[in-house]
């Protein structure tokens, strides 16, 4: 399906997309008497704005005024979906919001979030980051024909809304222990905001406090900063919280078995976000230092692939003593819909995004630092572009280990067959991208730079050891569509 005009893309080469994150989630509760002043829909809008990097296909906000939930969602970026007049109609004191990249189901309006279900006594709206791996098993608890969308999130919403007298909280206590896979959830009924995180805590979720009584839940701490909320703590793996007039109540629905996503440090999270008390930017710079020690090379200048390679390039330059410089200029304003170049002019497609600074690189031996290699097309084009611009040598350094395995927990990589490291050795990849040398950070050094114990991290895309076993038949993005 063609993507709409005006939607920006991180991707330098559309045929070699960077890993796509699952989604950004946000929720806010303020006392009802503060609803007019707090403007929860606008807080949510700004929270989603801060989380836009986690999903660019659709955006939505649901608001409750205590007696009724209203949902507004559409395809596109947060700033395209909402304007002042729409936000002014979303009045209330509780809100949940979402920006989506589809990791199950197609990028359609029906699959956009928040998902909503009416109940006997009201409604339930839910947003989800992550991927479930037992969706068919959960869907079997519902009557056939009960689903209108094709996502794991729709299944969860239907199950949580099928509540008895105990309401959403009681339904969550029953359903969440039976739910497997990655889920950072924020949901609400008319009076209460809830948040829950899977027992492995694969995708992030944090709790913040507003200055004047009120609570915020968000995928990343950067979203708390932007709405002026104070970071309180991470939602624990296996924890369910409820926020309302009685304060924040916490309970466990499962024992914590922490396996946080290592790739959040490499690429997914914003650099100004903090995970487990450590800034993502600091970790990325440290990875660059370690990369320099593991893969030193004689060179004249270290340049990043902008902007994803920038922090690690800074670290590499610092540890190696090789000057840091800018050798590639990125145009961030190219929409996804630029005319797809044919094979013969693919180089032009990349030129729309990146252009070399000829004077800065001519005759120089370059170290080019990037965060990861997916299919290799982007790095091959960059190496060739730098050589054409007069670089004497091009040494590629990557601040993650080879990505050899797909992710089933909410990040859309290529399939194993499409991942260049799933099929070729490092030397073969070097040859394929045309670099003079190629070095990846080792898995041990990346883990050590994160300051988190190896056993508490998911690193499956690097080592193939999936912390939550995934059956072969639960591995498709379009699983529910296929079973229809
Ligand atoms: S497989 Fe990779 S991207 Fe997916 S959760 Fe694990 S570490 Fe993160």
TrEMBL record:
Its EC number is 2.4.2.14. Keywords: 4Fe-4S, Glutamine amidotransferase, Glycosyltransferase, Iron, Iron-sulfur, Magnesium, Metal-binding, Purine biosynthesis, Transferase. It comes from the Bacteria. Gene3D superfamilies: 3.40.50.2020, Glutamine Phosphoribosylpyrophosphate, subunit 1, domain 1. It is an enzyme of class 2 (transferase). GO terms for biological process: 'de novo' IMP biosynthetic process; purine nucleobase biosynthetic process. The active site is at residue 23. Mg(2+) binds at residues 308, 370-371. Pathway: Purine metabolism; IMP biosynthesis via de novo pathway; N(1)-(5-phospho-D-ribosyl)glycinamide from 5-phospho-alpha-D-ribose 1-diphosphate: step 1/2. Signal peptide: none annotated. InterPro entries: GATase_2_dom, Ntn_hydrolases_N, PRTase-like, PRTase_dom, PurF, PurF_N. Binds 1 Mg(2+) ion per subunit. Binds 1 [4Fe-4S] cluster per subunit. Its cofactor is Mg(2+); [4Fe-4S] cluster. It catalyses: 5-phospho-beta-D-ribosylamine + L-glutamate + diphosphate = 5-phospho-alpha-D-ribose 1-diphosphate + L-glutamine + H2O. PANTHER family: AMIDOPHOSPHORIBOSYLTRANSFERASE. In the C-terminal section; belongs to the purine/pyrimidine phosphoribosyltransferase family. Catalyzes the formation of phosphoribosylamine from phosphoribosylpyrophosphate (PRPP) and glutamine. This is Amidophosphoribosyltransferase. It comes from Actinomadura coerulea. The gene is purF.
């Amino acid at each position: 399906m063609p993507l709409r005009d005006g939607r920006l893309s991180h991707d330098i080469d559309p045929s070699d997309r960077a890993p796509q994150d699952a989604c950004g989630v946000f929720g806010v509760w303020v006392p009802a008497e503060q609803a007019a002043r707090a403007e929860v829909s606008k807080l949510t809008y700004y929270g989603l704005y801060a989380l836009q990097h986690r999903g660019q296909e659709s955006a939505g906000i649901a608001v409750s005024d205590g007696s009724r939930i209203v949902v507004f969602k559409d395809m596109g970026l947060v700033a395209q979906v909402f304007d002042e007049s729409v936000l002014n109609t979303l009045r209330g004191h509780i809100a949940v919001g979402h920006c989506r990249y589809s990791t199950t189901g197609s990028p359609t309006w029906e699959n956009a979030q928040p998902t909503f279900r009416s109940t006997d006594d009201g409604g339930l709206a839910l947003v989800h980051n992550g991927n479930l791996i037992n969706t068919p098993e959960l869907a079997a608890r519902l009557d056939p024909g009960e689903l209108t969308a094709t996502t794991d999130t729709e299944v969860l919403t239907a199950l949580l809304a099928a509540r008895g007298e105990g309401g959403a909280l009681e339904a969550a206590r029953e359903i969440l222990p039976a739910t497997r896979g990655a889920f950072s959830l924020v949901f609400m009924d008319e009076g209460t905001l809830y948040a829950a995180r899977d027992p492995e805590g694969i995708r992030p979720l944090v709790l913040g406090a507003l200055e004047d009584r009120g609570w915020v839940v968000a995928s990343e701490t950067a979203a708390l900063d932007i709405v002026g909320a104070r970071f309180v703590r991470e939602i624990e793996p296996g924890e369910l919280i409820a926020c309302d007039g009685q304060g924040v109540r916490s309970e466990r629905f499962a024992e914590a078995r922490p396996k946080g996503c290592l790739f959040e440090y490499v690429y997914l999270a914003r650099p100004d976000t903090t995970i487990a008390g450590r800034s993502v930017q600091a970790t990325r710079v440290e990875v660059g230092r370690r990369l320099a020690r593991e893969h030193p090379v004689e060179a004249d200048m270290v340049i990043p692939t902008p902007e994803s390679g920038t922090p690690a390039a800074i670290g590499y330059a610092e540890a190696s003593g090789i000057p840091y410089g800018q050798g590639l200029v990125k145009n961030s304003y190219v929409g996804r819909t630029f005319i797809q170049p044919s094979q013969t002019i693919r180089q032009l497609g990349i030129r729309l995004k990146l252009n070399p600074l000829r004077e800065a690189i001519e005759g120089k031996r370059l170290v080019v630092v990037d965060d990861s290699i997916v299919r290799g097309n982007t790095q091959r084009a960059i190496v060739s572009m730098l050589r054409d611009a007069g670089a004497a040598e091009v040494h590629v350094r990557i601040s993650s280990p080879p990505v050899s395995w797909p992710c089933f927990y909410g990040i859309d990589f290529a399939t194993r067959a499409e991942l260049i490291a799933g099929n070729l050795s490092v030397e073969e990849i070097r040859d394929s991208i045309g670099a003079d040398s190629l070095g990846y950070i080792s898995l041990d050094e990346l883990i050590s730079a994160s300051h988190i114990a190896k056993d508490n991290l998911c690193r499956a895309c690097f080592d193939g050891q999936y912390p939550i076993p995934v059956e072969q038949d639960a591995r498709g993005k379009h699983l529910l569509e296929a079973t229809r």
